[in-house]
Specification:
Blueprint lengths: L1 E7 L3 H16 L5 E6 L8 E3 L3 H9 L6 H19 L6 E5 L4 H9 L4 E6 L4 H15 L8 H13 L2 E4 L2 H9 L7 E3 L21 E5 L8 H9 L7 E5 L5 H11 L5 E3 L4 H7 L2 E4 L8 H8 L4 E4 L14 E4 L4 H13 L19
Helix pairs in contact: 2-3, 3-4, 8-12
């Protein structure tokens, strides 16, 4: 098997997803090589770093930098074409990631690949489009990272692939809803990195700590989180946003909002110490195929609040290790934050969910 994804091996959610698929292929004795933004040290004999210089030039020196959708599409498109150009020998199977695999698929097929696999980190592209439209209708701040060209390409990848890997029941159901045959779908399971463990000791200062990890974006529900947290009547409560703005309009919008509440802290960096000190992890996303951050919080035995459009919700045991709230529902989000603020001991995670197999339900 050969694999490709423009994320760095192990870096961020997409890079972690790529790393898991590479290691699964390696453990199964079928890894022939892979193409990525960065590769695992020691893999230089079989791995190829692919970082087209034209991507950086387009994103800093052309009008593309003003369009999040086109910037994202062209980054994936140029990577895909570069990988296709480097494929020179046949392989038994080829795995690519949605939105950046069509040209590689066509080249691998021409070289005799017998099996084309598409990894789908998100739900069906039409559901992503729908969810982003709903978020944009609510806030009107940012444009989606996905445009019509990305949608059209991804739909062609769905048709070309022999198998589409889905990593949550939420994602699987979305493909069935939009007409993809269930027989074409293969369920895989994603796991947090083993370093995410509960803290030996926790802060005893009485401060209520809420943590969010990911892009600071309207599509991730950060606006709703700020609304809900702002209702908490506790001057010592703290909301830590671990990430950066996803777009220039988003940066301007969120800087203005965050500066109004001194209890909100933006703190990029290693999430582990923040998670281990957290009272709750909030992930109010409008769409997430899985959400590694939720799994990482659960692995640290931190109660989570997620939306019904987050794939990892299948691991939430209501009232035991967290809650599922309506997407975009500020009232429900606030109610759960307030409950945990007042009655923290009543929600005890009671172990770490098994992410490696069937749903815990």
């Amino acid at each position: 098997m050969k694999l490709s994804c423009n994320a760095p091996y192990g870096g961020g959610g997409l890079g972690r997803h790529l790393a898991e698929r590479i290691e699964a292929a390696r453990a199964g004795g079928v890894l022939e090589g892979y193409y990525a933004g960065e590769v695992k040290p020691g893999d230089e004999a079989i791995a190829h770093v692919v970082r087209p210089a034209s991507v950086h030039l387009l994103q800093v020196a052309t009008p593309v930098r003003f369009s999040r959708g086109w910037s994202n599409f062209l980054a994936g498109e140029l990577f895909d074409r570069a990988v296709a150009g480097r494929l020179g020998s046949p392989c038994d199977s080829f795995l690519g990631f949605a939105g950046k695999a069509l040209h590689s698929f066509e080249r691998a097929l021409g070289l005799g690949a017998g099996h084309l696999i598409l990894a789908a980190p998100n739900s069906h592209v039409r559901r992503v489009e729908n969810r982003h439209a709903a978020a944009r209708a609510r806030r009107g701040v940012e444009s989606s990272w996905m445009n019509t060209a990305q949608i059209a390409k991804t739909l062609r990848e769905y048709e070309t692939a022999d198998v589409i890997e889905v990593n949550s029941e939420y994602t699987r159901e979305s493909f069935i809803e939009y007409g993809v045959p269930e027989t074409k779908l293969e369920r895989t399971y994603l796991t947090p990195h083993p370093r995410f463990q509960p803290a030996a000791t926790r802060p005893q200062d009485g401060r209520f700590r809420v943590v969010y990890m990911g892009p600071i974006s309207t599509f991730k529900g950060v606006s709703e989180l700020l609304d809900a947290f702002g209702r908490l009547d506790d001057p010592d409560a703290e909301l830590v946003l671990m990430g950066g703005p996803a777009s220039r309009p988003g940066r301007i919008h969120f800087e203005r909002r965050i500066n109004k509440d001194p209890r909100v802290v933006v703190a990029p960096g290693d999430p582990l110490p923040r998670l281990q000190a957290a009272d709750v992890y909030a992930h109010p996303s409008w769409e997430d195929g899985f959400a590694y951050a939720v799994a990482e919080a659960m692995a640290c035995q931190v109660p989570v609040i997620v939306t019904e459009n987050t794939g990892a919700m299948e691991y939430v045991r209501e009232g035991v290790n967290g809650y599922v709230v309506g997407t975009g529902n500020v009232d429900q989000l606030y109610e759960r934050l307030a409950f945990l603020h007042e009655r923290r001991p009543r929600v005890s995670p009671a172990g770490v969910p098994d992410f490696s197999g069937p749903s815990v339900h």
